[in-house]
Amino acid sequence: MQLQTLAREPRSAGPGTHLARRTVQWREILADIRDAALGTILRKLSHDRNCLSEEAVAVRTERLPYNLLKARKHVDFFGQFTQFRGLSVIDIGCGYGDVAIGLAKAGARRVVGVDLDPLRIDCARRNAEVEGVGHIASFECLDFVTGWRRPETFDCVLSIASFEHILDARQCLGKIYDCLVPGGALLTRFGPLWLSPYGAHMFDFTRVPWVHLLFSEKVVLEVRREVFRPGQAAARYEDIVGHLNRITVSRFRRHATAVGFEPRVFRVNPEKDTKWRGLLRPFNSLLNATPGLRELGAFTLLAVLDKPADSSGIKAPTSRHASARFSQVESGCL
Ligand SMILES: C[S@@+](CC[C@H](N)C(=O)[O-])C[C@H]1O[C@@H](n2cnc3c(N)ncnc32)[C@H](O)[C@@H]1O
After folding, report:
1. pLDDT tens digit sequence for 261-302
2. Which of 37, 207, 251, 256 would you label with 314, given CA atoms 20 to 30 Å apart?
3. Which residues of 93-106 are buried (b: 16+ CB within 10 A; e: fewer)?
């Protein structure tokens, strides 16, 4: 296609412009050849065992029952930091609603689950009714950042495996702060973080670590479409269904500081890395301990952030004190 364009190039432009345009076109052709070669390599390093059409995804979601084990795991884990009994909780990026339903069963007074995927919200609503907690757990299908407008406040905000998907993480943290009561807390755990080996979330079809740093965005997303989700065309990681916002530990810390949260827990890699039976662990530990390379070994982030009890809805100004507080509580293990 581009070779044809090159052949049909009008000869009226001046020699300088003409040369510059030809150089650009040759560069594009070479980039296409490089991408085709890299695409072939990545295809060889990928599999299509999880390939599903959009219809098949919908059918699968429709049949998903409440996942008790998953709910218990998260409710118990976050229960270390907050007693949910009697609290009002909002779960942002609630997915199929398992944790929200689990919280309702664990004695939360009121739970609202928010997710922008209508299939997941339908599944959550249905399972809440089946589990007999539909009167406690309700679900809203919307983008929390752009669509949540209720004046309601909550004792606690939970967000699991979602912060790397929420496009405007800074604004999201601001909205979370606003919908917390003074003294309330955000509890979140998410990842893989962008610069970690699986930060591109392409693990459903390839195990190549740092695939997004080794291959261009165009190549990765083309192969993704071919072998994983043929119904999803995306030109950027931000555009894939569910989105990816390229968040890192330092970016999240900066946003949370700017919003005025007081960190109680800020822990990189709260669980040991079990991928490849822990073979990567020594390597990750080395990365984690090396300034400048730390983000490459930062898989997940656990944060418990408090809205100060004396905040009365007024955001604290960004200050050195706030960043110092993050450094004091920050920890990381591998
Ligand atoms: C990886 S899933 C995690 C779901 C669930 N928390 C869990 O642990 O199974 C991330 C979810 O975030 C949702 N999401 C992404 N951006 C969102 C936004 N701006 N508002 C609400 N939900 C969002 C996606 O639709 C997706 O269901």
Report:
1. 999 999 988 875 555 666 777 777 777 778 778 898 888 999
2. 251
3. bbbbbbbbbbbbbb
51 assigned to some structural domain: no
Residue 215 is given by DSSP the state S
For the CA of 168, the nearest atom of ligand 1: 19
Q: Are residues 129 and 207 in the same domain?
A: no
- Give the domain range for residue 13: 2-44+202-239
* CA 94–ligand 1 middle distance (angstroms): 6
Q: How far is the CA of 96 from the centre of ligand 1 (A)?
A: 9
Q: 227 lies in a domain? A: yes
Q: Are strands 262-268 and 301-306 parallel, antiparallel or unpaired?
A: antiparallel
With residue 302 as reference, give the H or E element that holds it: strand 301-306
Which ligand 1 atom sits closest to the C-alpha of 147?
20
Count of the separate structural domains present in the chain: 2
Say how many Å lie between the CA of residue 260 and the centre of ligand 1: 24
Which of 290, 223, 280 is closest to 42 using CA atoms? 223
Q: Among 90, 99, 117, 162, name the best residue to mutate to test ligand 1's pocket (greatest count of ligand atoms within 8 A of Cβ).
A: 162
CB-defined site of ligand 1, < 6 Å: 92-95, 114-117, 120, 143-145, 160-162, 165-166, 242-243
Q: Of 190, 210, 239, which residue is a domain's last?
A: 239
Are residues 232 and 136 located together in one domain of the fold?
Answer: no
Same domain membership, residue 207 and residue 275: no
Q: Could you count the other beta carbons within 10 Å of the beta carbon of residue 267?
A: 18
Peptide bond into 192 cis (omega under 30): yes
Tell me if 49 is assigned to some domain: no
Strand 180-190, strand 154-160: pairing: parallel
Asked if 184 and 234 sit in the same domain, the reply is no
User: What confidence tens digit (pLDDT) does each residue in 194-250 have?
Assistant: 999 999 999 999 999 999 999 999 999 999 999 999 999 999 999 999 899 999 999
The answer to whether residues 240 and 202 touch, using CB atoms and an 8 Å cutoff, is: no
